[in-house]
Design a protein that fits this description.
Length: 248
């Protein structure tokens, strides 16, 4: 018997913010399905650890997606080493807890620069490198429609992500790609666990109709679907992987 083919065999994928959490889980899943994967992160040491764990099928590139020169260098590396991209996952994002009355200009600038500006230019600068039929995935959030009181600005950035996907989807035919949002609910990642107290975490779990947080691997499975040919007619959509939190 021959080897079992992965659904992404021969594909080249980029996952920004791939040195931990959901991004690293997506990179692992893509590798398991046969893709070659580029991952980015801002912290070189953390990125190197992720690259070592992922193995020879992965390449780590230090990149702050809010810096356009960093994105130019990233895509130059991808072009030189792989020649094209079949999948782009704009996952890099930050969340800073700040309720109304305590929001600072620096927090607003940081979240919009990474989450919105960074995602936008991750997509736009990828265009010359996309293979025909490429899949672009922007990581959204349930916060786009159901923001927590301590994360209103973060929710606003994710609402912007949803609208960028809608707007960019009009260019799918001429651009030769399809683009979708993937919106996780609360996920058991270091980012969320570091943001919430034990009490808030328990309350969050209780508010999910399935009664638990998502595991990063569950979000990664949805990202595999959107990257695969099985989602070949899915464009401009928002796939919720949130246990029903923002759906009911």
């Amino acid at each position: 018997m021959g080897a079992i083919m992965g659904v992404l065999d021969g594909k080249v994928a980029l996952v920004t913010g791939g040195s931990g959490g959901i991004g690293l889980a997506i990179a692992r899943a893509y590798l398991a399905e046969g893709a070659r994967v580029f991952v980015t992160g801002r912290q070189r040491a953390r990125l190197a650890a992720a690259e070592a764990e992922l193995g020879p099928g992965a390449t780590g590139v230090t990149c702050d997606v809010s810096r356009l020169d960093d994105l130019d260098a990233l895509y130059a590396t991808v072009a030189e080493q792989a020649g094209r991209l079949d999948v782009v996952v704009a996952n890099a994002g930050i969340g800073i807890a700040a309720p109304l009355g305590e929001i600072t200009e620096e927090q607003v600038d940081a979240m919009f620069a990474t989450n919105v500006k960074g995602s936008l230019f991750t997509v736009q600068k990828a265009l010359p490198h996309l293979a025909e039929g490429a899949s672009i995935i922007l990581i959204g959030s349930t916060a786009a429609t159901r923001p927590e009181p301590f994360l209103p600005v973060y929710g606003a950035t994710k609402a912007a992500i949803r609208n960028l996907v809608r707007g960019f989807a009009h260019s799918a035919r001429t651009g030769g790609f399809r683009i979708n949002a993937l919106s996780p609910g609360a996920t058991r990642s270091s980012g969320l666990l570091g943001l919430l107290s034990a009490e808030d975490l328990a309350a969050t779990e209780d508010s999910v109709p399935l009664g638990r947080l998502a595991e990063p691997e569950e979000i990664a499975a949805a990202a595999v679907f959107l990257a695969s040919e099985a989602a070949g007619f899915v464009n401009g959509s928002d796939l919720a992987a949130d246990g029903g939190y923002a759906q009911v």
